[in-house]
Predict the 3D structure of the following.
Amino acid sequence: MNSKKKIKPNTILIGAQKCATTSVYNWVSQHPEVCGPSTLKDYSFFIKDSFFEKGIDLFKKDYEKEGYNNQKIILHGCVHYIYFKKAIDRIYEYDPNIKLLLVLRNPIDRAISAYQYAKKMNLEKLEFKSALKKENTRLKGNLSDRSELTYVSHSKYGEQLEYLLQKFDRSQLCVIFYDDVNNRPESVTQKIFNFLDVDLNFTPSFSVLNRTGKLKFKALQKVVYSQNKYKKGIVKYVLDPILPLSKRIKIKNRFKEWNTKNNKVKEDFSEYKKLLKPLFVDDINKTEKILNLDLSHWK
């Protein structure tokens, strides 16, 4: 391999959050014509200024270390890209012809799942109804609040797709659905492989990753994922010099999977589904028009 060769993404999974994107990314990455390191899934390069300012060559070392061997598809992903206009603008400036993958889910279910996940990760302190009331304030907050604690706005796909398709041609976008990921994984991967123009005869191992689930050890999760000035200091002055970000991401992902029980979270959100339903009707109508699909089952 020519070490001077530019190695940078030509396909990006842009979202949406809590729509089985980790599983999809993993399945696509298994294809022999795809290089998609797990460390570069949810690596928010096009969102975080501190990453973006380092330049696109920042990716090169990670792809080389994680198995790049002249594959046709160089895959990257971040579930929040579809949500942030700044990210879409930067991706377009980087490569206006790039291929984009997007997974969508019933917006009500997605919002609730995102809330459950935020609670699990010790990011959300409020009950669901209180969190919804605070969303407008959080939309003006820091990057973490806007990324993880804005449940309704994240589910407004119509608004996001409208902006995305002002930049990119519809032919550059492959849209799949959460229900199909769960119920028809082979058809999902065939659709994506066809879109990427890679060998259709390959079938990945269909494991499910990044489940919301319940924690085995809450206290341990809190220690690993807490954010405070002391932990930031340890990361900056101790971990950064000896353990690259890509390695830390891999370790945290493995810990998160290990610390999640297989059983599903059983909570009654029927009251909140009724509360959420009218908030999405107009946006679902917009999404239907943009994608030319019947999404009445979401309503």
About this structure: The CA atoms of residues 106 and 174 lie 17 Å apart. The chain has one domain: 11-214+260-298. The beta strands are 11-13, 34-35, 73-77, 99-104, 173-177.
